[in-house]
Write a structure and sequence with these properties.
This protein is an alpha/beta fold. It folds into three domains: 1-62, Beta Barrel (OB fold (Dihydrolipoamide Acetyltransferase, E2P)), CATH 2.40.50.140; 100-114 and 265-429, Vaccinia Virus protein VP39 (Rossmann fold), CATH 3.40.50.150; 122-232, OB fold (Dihydrolipoamide Acetyltransferase, E2P) (Beta Barrel), CATH 2.40.50.1070. It contains nine helices and 23 strands. It has helices at 83-100, 154-164, 167-173, 205-218, 266-280, 299-304, 316-328, 341-351, 389-401; strands spanning 3-5, 8-9, 15-18, 24-27, 35-43, 47-57, 108-111, 122-127, 133-136, 143-145, 177-184, 191-197, 221-226, 229-232, 242-246, 252-256, 287-291, 308-313, 334-338, 357-360, 381-386, 404-412, 422-429. The strands form four sheets. It has an eight-stranded mixed β-sheet, with helices on both faces. The radius of gyration is 23 Å and the shape is globular. The mean pLDDT is 95.
Length: 430
């Protein structure tokens, strides 16, 4: 069996090493510096994929994973490392992505997570044709049955146990249901349960009765999602809203429903919001634009700091909550536009609008053609929130060619036990 020395962890959470002939090897569930005996699984033109058969020299940062399904379930790819090591890996991943794009990297601040387990307020379970319920196996669509998830919040784990106890319900759902989404309200602990049904699928009367029993046991409402359409199982019983409460200098409450995006880690989201507000600088009385504003996660606190907020969002459901959240918080000067980022920027340019600061929180794929329009807003600052270091690096390079410089970079450990990292970058006009 060949032996390799792990150089570093790369995007995706795998270790990178080199064979004696220089061939690049990618191995999961290893740590930097470890000497590993491997078995080659798949060969490609420029690299091979392998699995570790034995750790000959362990990293001092290796630990026994808390979850018995680690390395089987495809979720927590860094659970074999202590949290301090995980944070170092993520900072390195963020910095390397920017360096490859030719960006001078400032010192990276890491906002660590004090609760490394039980933090997820949103989980999506997959349902197999035979009624098996769980997560996908590593690099596979095969469902691994779970009894619970150590990184999920308590109410979600109670719901998982209740679902696993109901074989008849799972069998009734399996023909038309791809998965079940569980969401816990950060403020109240209330649980929302969403069934993702395939197009044309319907529920039998027996399955509806079983779902009603589950809803009573869990004190929850059940919703049905067909593609983008979302409606309650019983229209006469609309679901309660999810809530997140913020306190401090400006106390406020955000509300939303299961059709809106919200960060899965509520505690770290609080730190993220504070960091975005700090990077935005002095906003009182100044016009501020937020693209991809969702239900107001950043717009509301920035408005409470005195910014004249214009929020842009394509999801009409989220936008309605953004408006109601801003109104409930007592904001006086704000408006929300339902539009794509590109069309909104074109419209605002036509209106002659200019902004002191722009906040961006795009989806994983990052910015599109709108990136070329951002410098025309004459914004002194751009605060970019990203969940993907690769697309962040690409977009920062574009913006820096448009006359901005990267002056501050913060990593937020939003997803402990995984390689995923949230980051916030501050760009200032040269």
């Amino acid at each position: 069996m060949p032996r390799i020395r792990v150089e570093k962890i790369i995007t995706g959470g795998r270790g990178l090493a080199r064979m004696e002939d220089g061939m690049v090897v990618m191995v999961p569930f290893v740590l930097p510096g470890e000497l590993v005996e491997i078995e080659v699984v798949k060969r490609f033109r420029g690299h091979v994929e392998a699995k570790a058969t034995e750790i000959l020299e362990e990293s001092p940062h290796r630990r026994i994973p808390p979850c018995p399904l680690h390395a089987t379930c495809g979720g927590c790819d860094l659970q074999h490392a202590v949290e301090k090591c995980q944070a170092a890996i993520k900072k390195a991943l963020l910095g390397e992505n920017l360096q490859r794009a030719g960006i001078p990297v400032p010192p990276i601040t890491m906002l660590s997570c004090k609760r490394a387990m039980g933090y997820r307020h949103r989980v999506r379970l997959h349902l197999a044709a035979d009624g098996s319920l769980g997560f996908h196996r590593v690099r596979s669509n095969q469902v691994v049955t779970i009894a619970g998830c150590p990184v999920a919040a308590d109410a979600i784990n109670r719901a998982i146990r209740a679902l696993q106890e109901r074989a008849s319900l799972r069998s009734g759902l399996a023909p038309g249901c791809d998965g079940i989404e569980l969401l816990q309200s950060p403020a109240s602990g209330h649980l929302a349960l969403v069934l993702h049904l395939r197009r044309g699928a319907a529920l039998s009367r027996k399955t509806v009765r079983l779902l009603d029993g589950l809803a009573r046991e869990l004190d929850t409402e059940i919703e049905i999602r067909h593609g983008r359409q979302l409606h309650p199982l019983h229209p006469a019983r609309p679901p309660r809203l999810l809530r997140h409460e913020f306190s401090g200098g400006n106390s406020y409450v955000l509300q939303w429903d299961s059709g809106c995006f919200f960060q899965a880690n509520a505690h770290q989201n609080r730190l993220l919001v504070e960091e975005v507000c700090a990077m935005a600088g002095e906003v009182s009385g100044h016009p501020l634009l937020e693209l991809h504003c969702g239900m107001g996660n950043f717009s509301v606190p920035l408005g409470l700091l005195g910014a004249r907020v214009t929020g842009v969002e394509q999801n009409g459901r989220s936008l309605r909550f953004a408006d109601s959240n801003a109104s409930a918080a007592g904001l006086a000067k704000y408006r929300f536009l339902r539009a794509s980022a590109q069309s909104a920027l074109s419209r605002l340019r036509h209106e002659g609008a200019h902004f002191a600061c722009i906040v961006l929180d795009p989806p994983r794929q990052g910015l599109g053609r709108e990136v070329s329009l951002l410098p025309e807003t004459r914004a002194r600052r751009i605060v970019y929130v990203s969940c993907d270091p690769a697309t962040l690096a690409r977009d920062l390079a574009r913006l820096m060619r448009g006359g901005y410089r990267l002056s501050r970079l913060t990593a937020v450990d939003m997803f402990p036990q995984t390689h995923h990292i949230e980051s916030v970058a501050l760009l200032e006009k040269n």
